DNA sequence: CGACTGACGCCGA
DNA sequence: CTCGGCGCCAGTC
């Protein structure tokens, strides 16, 4: 019930990913002050309330791969959302080199301040 | 309490 | 590129 602290940090961090850009699970974990705990990010997303409108589809694996199996409904939906923001998805993956979010740490400190 | 399970990640073979 | 193995950790059973 009150384990919300970590989840909230994660959700809040993901909210900062700008449209047209993506981030990886590990990246979000680090920025949320939870280094090495990428799995928690996935966990947090799976239990994220609809009301928060968390842009979960902007979070990918460290390889740029969509975390869901190719062809799955989830994968298709995620691909759709991304392409809607002009993020190119090829073979269930995105080229991080071109679309990975590179936040300004100073600004993050201002917006997140844990 | 132990075993298993993930929307993960990194390294070595 | 594919596997296997290990680290990580909150939940579940």
Going by CATH, the homologous superfamily would be: Winged helix-like DNA-binding domain superfamily/Winged helix DNA-binding domain
Main sheet properties: 2 strands, parallel
Level-1 CATH class name: Mainly Alpha
User: What is the structural class?
Assistant: mainly alpha
**Distance between the ends:** 20 Å
Query: What pattern of helices and strands is seen along the backbone?
Result: HEHHEHHH
Q: Give the CATH topology.
A: Arc Repressor Mutant, subunit A
List the helices and strands and how they pair.
Layout: H1 4-15, E1 23-24, H2 25-31, H3 38-46, E2 59-60, H4 73-84, H5 96-99, H6 105-112
Parallel strand pairs: 1-2
The protein binds a DNA duplex (13 and 13 nucleotides) through residues 3, 6, 24-26, 29, 36-46, 56, 59-63, 66-68, 74, 78.
